[in-house]
Amino acid sequence: MNIIDRRRLLGPPNAVPVKFVAETQEKDQTTQAPKELFMERGLVANSNGSACLESRGLVIQAIVYGPRPVQPNFTPSATQGSELMSRATFNVEFEMSPLVSGFATLDTQKLAVCVRDVFLASLLLDSYPKSTIDVHVQCLSLPQGVPEDEVLAMATNCISVALVDSGLEMRDVPVSVANDGVVLTVLNYQNDEIVGLVVGRSVEGLASRLEGLKEESRGVRREIDTFLMK
Amino acid sequence: MISAPEKVVPGQPIVPILPDSVYEAGEGASMKKLYANNELITCIVSNKLGKVITQEKDGKTIISVVSVGSGSNKITTPKVGDIVIAKVVRITGTRALCDIYSIETATGTGLINSVLAEGVENFRGVVRSQDIRSTNRDSVKLVECFKPGDIIRAQVISLGDGRDYFLTTSRNDLGVIFAKSNGGAGQMMLALDWQTMVCPETGKTEKRKCAKPF
C-alpha cells in the first residue's frame, strides 16, 4: 500500500519493522556445551607459578608461592623440628571470588583438604627442607548447576598446571576427572597410580567405573601435555 | 646410543636404565621403576617441565632437567655445599646474620626469591666467627671482617636449626665481594688483599675478609 504523506519524512516504501527472534534458552547450553578446556599459565608475575583453567563457564585460578622460608614455632617439639628440617610444608587455600553468587553450598574447606592430599603424594617435598609451599585457589566463575565434584576436579588440574609452571619437582602431574559423584585423580605416567578418590555418596559398580575414568584422565593428560609443550 | 627427548613434562620417562648403562639422574630427574609390557623397568624420569641436559662426568652421563620459559625462576632451596650470595644484615660479637639471595648450582645460578624487595621474607644464614676464615680462627674480630650491607659469597655447611642456615667463608674465593665505604654512605670499595678494601675516591682503607676475585 502506498502511503504518501508529504508532511513527514518516511522511510523507503518497502520497509518493514524490525522483529527480534525470541532468545533460545542460553542457560542450558553451559551444561550441554562440548567439554572444552582452556588453559593459561604464568599470568601472575610476582608469584612462583600460576595457572587459570576454564571449562564450560567454570573458571578457576591457582597461584603458587614457594618455597618460602618457614617461621618455626617459638617452642618446637622434637618431632616438629625434624619435620620442618626434612621436607617442605604444603598448604592449600580455596576461596570463592566475591563476584560469584550462589555458592553457599560449596564446602571450600573440604575441597582444600581433598586437593591437599593429592599433592602431598605427588610433590617431591623432600627436595625443599625448611620451607613452605602455599597454593591459593580461587573460583572466579561458577555457573548454576555445576556439581561440586567438577569444581574439585578442575581445581586439582589447575593446581597441577600452576605447580608445573612454578618449576617445583614432582613425581608426575596429577590429573583429575569427575563423573556423577565420583572424582578420580591419577598419575598417568606412573602406571595410572591413583592418588585421590572422592566418592560423594554410595555408588554401585565403582570398580568398573574407575576404568572409564582412567581412560578419560588420559585424554585430559594429553591436552595438558600438549599445552605445556608449546 | 639411546636418544633422549629434548623437552619433557614431569613424570615423563627419559631413558631406561639397562644393565650396562652409564646414565645417572642429576638435578630435576630421578630413577623410578615403571611397568612397561608387563615388566618392571628402571628409568630415569623427569621431575620438572623443561629441557633435558646431558653432562659427561667420570665416565658417566648425568641427565638433568632444567626449567625453561616464564616460570623458570630455578626454584631451589640452599643445600649443604652450595655456594650462595648473601647480604649481611646484622653483626654481633660472635656471628653475622645474612639474607640469602641466590645460589650457584651445578646447572647455573638461581635466584631464591622471585621478588627481591625489602619486605619479602628471605632465607636467613649465619656466619659464625669461627667459620669466617681458616687461620687464627679464635682471634677473629667480626667487625674487621664484615659490616652490615656487605654482599658476601659463602658456602652452606649445614641446614642449621630453626630458621638459619650455617654458612662459612673460610675459603680463598669466599668472603666479601661488594661493600660500600663509610658504613654504606660512601662509594663501592675494591679489594686490595684478603683483609683490606680501599675506597677509590677517598683512598681510605677498611678491613674486610675479602673473596679472591679471580
From TrEMBL, chain A:
Predominant cellular place of this UniProt entry's protein: cytoplasm
One GO MF term: RNA binding
Q: Does the keyword rRNA processing apply?
A: yes
GO CC, sorted alphabetically, is: cytoplasmic exosome (RNase complex); nuclear exosome (RNase complex); nucleolus
**InterPro entries in the record, alphabetically?**
ExoRNase_PH_dom1, PNPase/RNase_PH_dom_sf, Ribosomal_Su5_D2-typ_SF, RNase_PH
**Keyword set, alphabetical order:** Cytoplasm, Exosome, Nucleus, RNA-binding, rRNA processing
Task: Tell where it localizes.
Answer: Cytoplasm; Nucleus
Q: Which Pfam families match?
A: RNase_PH (PF01138)
In this chain the Exoribonuclease phosphorolytic domain maps to 35-169
In the record, biological process GO terms are: exonucleolytic trimming to generate mature 3'-end of 5.8S rRNA from tricistronic rRNA transcript (SSU-rRNA, 5.8S rRNA, LSU-rRNA); nuclear mRNA surveillance; poly(A)-dependent snoRNA 3'-end processing; rRNA catabolic process; TRAMP-dependent tRNA surveillance pathway; U4 snRNA 3'-end processing
Q: Family assignment?
A: Belongs to the RNase PH family.
Report the protein name in the record. Exoribonuclease phosphorolytic domain-containing protein
Give the source species.
Kuraishia capsulata CBS 1993
UniProtKB/TrEMBL annotation, chain B:
Has UniProt tagged this entry with the keyword Cytoplasm?
yes
Instruction: List the SUPFAM superfamilies hit by this protein, alphabetically.
Output: Nucleic acid-binding proteins
* Gene Ontology terms for molecular function: RNA binding
The protein's matches in Pfam families, at most eight in alphabetical order, are given as: EXOSC1
State its location(s). Nucleus, Nucleolus
Q: Which GO terms describe its cellular component?
A: chromatin; cytoplasmic exosome (RNase complex); nuclear exosome (RNase complex); nucleolus
Going by the entry's taxonomy, the superkingdom of the source organism is recorded as Eukaryota
Record keyword Cytoplasm present: yes
Could you provide one GO biological process annotation from this protein's UniProt record?
TRAMP-dependent tRNA surveillance pathway
Question: Keyword set for this entry?
Answer: Cytoplasm, Exosome
Can you give the residue ranges of the S1 motif domain?
81-171
PANTHER family assigned to the protein according to its UniProt record, in alphabetical order: 3'-5' EXORIBONUCLEASE CSL4-RELATED, EXOSOME COMPLEX COMPONENT CSL4
UniProt-recorded name of the protein: S1 motif domain-containing protein
